[in-house]
UniProtKB/TrEMBL annotation:
<dbReference type="InterPro" id="IPR040980">
    <property type="entry name" value="SWI2_SNF2"/>
</dbReference>
<protein>
    <submittedName>
        <fullName>Type III restriction enzyme, res subunit domain protein</fullName>
    </submittedName>
</protein>
<dbReference type="InterPro" id="IPR027417">
    <property type="entry name" value="P-loop_NTPase"/>
</dbReference>
<dbReference type="Pfam" id="PF18766">
    <property type="entry name" value="SWI2_SNF2"/>
</dbReference>
<feature type="domain" description="SWI2/SNF2 ATPase">
    <location>
        <begin position="16"/>
        <end position="89"/>
    </location>
</feature>
Length: 91
């Protein structure tokens, strides 16, 4: 059978993505666990990357003593296509 190759590439956020991620992480650091965030971007604007970067950022937030702010992050979507995209982006 054929061979499968995995290609990795570095993706830089556009301004609106960077702004959204930065603001959500700052709010999460200020308010801690238990908050809900809604990220609305237009079609094709990179919502999947914005959500993935935010999820990774939340898992990296640490208190001064090194203890994590969050031990897990739950992402809720309303579309099965987005579920598959996010699983790939976050993994």
């Amino acid at each position: 059978m054929g061979q499968f190759k995995t290609q990795e590439r570095l993706i830089f956020p556009r301004y609106h993505q960077f702004d959204a991620v930065t603001k959500m992480l700052a709010d999460a650091k200020a308010n801690g666990a238990g908050m809900n965030y809604l990220c609305e971007h237009s079609a094709g604007s990179g919502k999947t990357s914005t959500i993935a970067w935010t999820a990774h950022g939340l898992t990296r937030l640490r208190y001064d003593d090194g203890e994590p702010y969050f031990h897990g992050v739950i992402i809720v979507t309303d579309r099965t296509v987005l579920d598959a995209q996010l699983q790939e982006a976050v993994s």
